[in-house]
Structure formats: C-alpha cells, structure tokens
Design brief:
Elements (H helix, E strand, L loop, with lengths): L1 H11 L35 H6 L17 H15 L4 H11 L5 H14 L11 H4 L7 H13 L28 H4 L2 H13 L11 H22 L56 H17 L1 E3 L5 E3 L10 H10 L8 H4 L2 H10 L25 H18 L7 H4 L12 E2 L2 E2 L6
Antiparallel strand pairs: 1-2, 3-4
Length: about 450
C-alpha cells in the first residue's frame, strides 16, 4: 500500500507540467531515457477508443476554470469519473489517469482522480493530497509562489532545512473596510480545503446517494455560517445578512489577488455596489439564465415548503415531512432539490438549480455577458468560494429557506430525543487503563 500511495501522489503533482518531466527520485529508463512522474520511461497515450469513452470529459478547456457549480462541468466530471472507475485495480487506475492527465482540464482531472480514489473500496487507505498542495495558486498569490521557487532554485539539493516564506493575511486588503476584519477566517487554507473536500464526498449529479445527503448539505453550510457569525461578533461586526433581494447592489466587493492557474491569469473581481445581471456566458458552458428564473425557482421551492409537498415530472405529489418511517425525510428531499442534484431532485427542470446557479451568477456579475473576456470570480470554485464575503450572505439565504421548512414540522417529542433502556451512569477519561482525575484550584 505504501508504494501505491507514493505512485498515486505523483499523479497529482504539478498538474500543469507534462508527465514526462524528469523527477530526481524516479530512475531513468533503459538506454538513458528520462524517468517520468509515471514511474517508467514512457507515458501511456490516449487511444481513439479511449477518447470515445470519455464522453464530455474533453469539453472543459485545459487551463480554464473548472466549476462543479456548472451543470455541463458536472457532466464532464461524471464522464471522466466513469472512465477512471472502470479500472479494476490500482495499477490500471494509474494507467488510465496517466493517459488522460494531459488531455483534460487540470482541475477536472484532479477532481475526477480524487473522486475515484475516494469511491473505490480497494483504495480507501490511499491518502488524498490537500487541494492546497496540488493547486497552491488558489490559496497563495503568484508573487509569493515565485519567491518560493527562487529560494528553492538557490538552495542546494542536499539541504534538509525547510524553507519558510512569510505570507500574511493582509495581502488582499487593508483595514479600511469593516468586512476585512474577518478576512483571516474567510481566507484560511483549512476551511476552504474542507469545503472543496465536502463537495467531493457529497457531490451533486454524480449518482452518489449517501444517507441524509440533502440534509447534510444544509447542515454543513449552516454550521459554517454560524461559526462565521461568531467570528464577526468577536470583532464587533453584526451577524451576516442574507442575500435575498437579487436586484439590489451587493455592497461589498472582493479582490482575491489570486490566479486561476500558473499562467498568472487572475480570478474575476467584483467592485463594491455591483448588481447581479442576467447571465450570458455560454463560453463557459452555461445556458442563458435570467434573474427572473432564479426568482421563479425560489418561489416554487417556497410554495412546496408551505404546501407540504413537491411535484415529480408526472405531477404526482411527494410529501415533505420528517415524520416518516420509510423513504426519504422531507429535509433530504428539499436539499436534493435546492442544491440541486439533477438525478435526485424530484423535478429538476421545475425546481431548477438554485444553489449552484446562485454561485455561478455571483461569480460572473462583473462580466455577465463576456464583454471583457474576464474569468469567473472565486465564488465559482468550491476551493475558493469561502474567501468571498458574499458566500456567507448567499448561504444565509439558503439556511433561511431550510429554516422555513423546519418551522412547518412538529417539534421533537421526548420519544424522539431519548434512547429507551439506555442510562448514562458516568463520564470519564481513561488513559493507559487509568481514570484521569480533574483537579481544579
């Protein structure tokens, strides 16, 4: 397993470099040929038959932003994951991954390979690299990465002392705006990596129907917003306000100072007071979307909550209730429709794609019609979305919709909250078979 772990990690390294880039820890092949990151002298190539199996996986251009919030990108990910999941063992998976690595979008490749490793039983012990290790430019400004590379080039290969490049939380803003007081939390590597990983474990549209997936979509994001509110209160800011009027300007802009990839192309920025606009970005694989479409989806979800049921494509009612003994609970069904998972939603075309397209519309509000050929903003990538203050305003709105549903449900009873026959006798901490004793002054 240790060898499998090492080989898998090499497939994630430096995603923008070719696979045949020489590594010092990979032996050269016969006749002095270059040892590759794949571990041998040559990298397997993608045949025409392989390309036919990839489906839409080649539709996302290399070097561009891969956004799991965009349905066409999710479909590309689904096809690439299906190709990799056909592998019957670790060796086959490494062969398949090496074939597609230089053919598909780099972020899409990383997502699909990570998804495959997570969902293959025989690879459950393989440790995935943190997304910050694979794509540091999504967390660290390019100028700091350049400094790091310069220092590495100056350092002898035999050196063992870690190199440290100081990088503060003040690189993206000043103290002039109150919202910047909590930038330390929004731009934390750990919380952004967690968000990316959560959407990898509980993805929409990938035929993953984990227990309580819809409810956990609400719960996890609600917990992040609750913690964000606590951080705000601790620095004398009010709790975050929900983004519910999509025709008013967004007061706070965001300038990430980060790059989409190692080419130096920056993420899109949002000026203070930017309005949402009807989206016209088919260059990014997005169908035209109007604000009125979003408002209609919201209205239909709210109607379903207050009526107590949703409709499927046949017009049949699906009850929204948590008091069920079989089937899905209502909060799960609502979560599947809101996120939205087009394969689990009761009626995807009717209830829409509100959560995901909210992210996309916010990420393109600075260039909604591609007039300036700007990249999307950080709200379009699950690895960077939490950096933007508007993420929390958007998810406060999402939370309030779920809270509206919870108000329609009866309160918990004692039977719901107790475990008959279970008695808590005592609580303690045991270490080395010895009970710890707490002594206070």
């Amino acid at each position: 397993m240790a060898n499998v772990q090492a080989q898998m990690l090499k497939l994630f390294e430096r995603p923008y470099d070719p696979m045949n880039l020489r590594r010092s820890d990979v032996p050269t092949g016969s006749a002095g040929t270059v040892g590759t990151r794949f571990g041998g002298a040559t990298v397997p190539s993608l045949s025409d038959a392989d390309k036919n199996q990839l489906g839409k996986a080649l539709s996302v251009p290399r070097g561009s932003v891969f956004s799991f919030f965009i349905r066409s990108h999710r479909e590309a990910a689904k096809d690439l994951c299906a190709f990799l999941m056909k592998s019957t063992n670790a060796s086959e998976l490494m062969q398949s991954a090496a074939k597609v690595r230089e053919e598909v979008n780099q972020s899409l490749y990383n997502y699909a390979l990570s998804f495959t490793i997570l969902h293959k039983q025989d690879l459950r012990n393989v440790r995935l690299p943190a997304v910050v290790e694979v794509f540091p430019h999504k967390f660290i400004p390019q100028e700091e990465l350049t400094k790091m590379q310069i220092e590495v080039n100056r350092t002898p290969s035999t050196a063992t002392t870690p190199l440290v490049i100081e990088h503060g939380a003040d690189f993206a803003n000043t103290t002039l705006k109150p919202e910047h007081r909590v930038s330390y939390w929004r731009e934390d590597y750990g919380i952004n990596s967690h968000h990316w990983h959560w959407h990898l474990v509980y993805p929409a549209g990938m035929n993953v129907n984990r227990d309580r997936k819809g409810e956990l979509f609400y719960y996890m994001h609600q917990q992040m917003v609750a913690r964000y509110d606590m951080e705000r209160l601790s620095v004398n800011l009010k709790r975050v306000e929900k983004l519910e009027n999509w025709r008013e300007p967004i007061p706070d802009g965001y300038f990430s100072k980060l790059t989409v990839n190692n080419s130096g192309r920056p993420w899109g920025i949002r000026q203070d007071g930017t309005f949402l606009k009807d989206l016209r970005r088919n260059d990014a694989g997005i169908d035209f979307l109007d604000i009125s479409d979003m408002e209609l989806w919201r209205s239909r979800l709210m109607d379903a909550i207050h009526q107590g049921y949703m409709l499927n494509p046949n017009g049949e009612r699906i009850q929204l209730s948590d008091n069920v003994t079989t089937g899905k609970r209502g909060i799960d069904i609502l979560g599947d429709a809101f996120e939205a998972d087009d394969r689990l939603s009761p009626h995807y075309l009717f209830y829409g794609d509100l959560h995901n397209m909210g992210h996309v519309m916010l990420s393109f509000c600075h260039d909604f019609d591609n007039a300036h050929r700007e990249e999307m903003g950080v709200m379009g990538d699950s690895a960077t979305a939490l950096r933007d203050p508007v993420f929390y305003r958007w998810h406060k709105f999402v939370d309030d919709v779920f809270q509206e549903y919870k108000l329609t449900q009866p309160p918990y009873t004692m039977e719901d909250l107790t475990l008959p026959g279970v008695v808590l006798d005592k609580v303690g901490v045991v270490r080395d078979n010895q009970l710890n004793t707490l002594t206070t002054g």
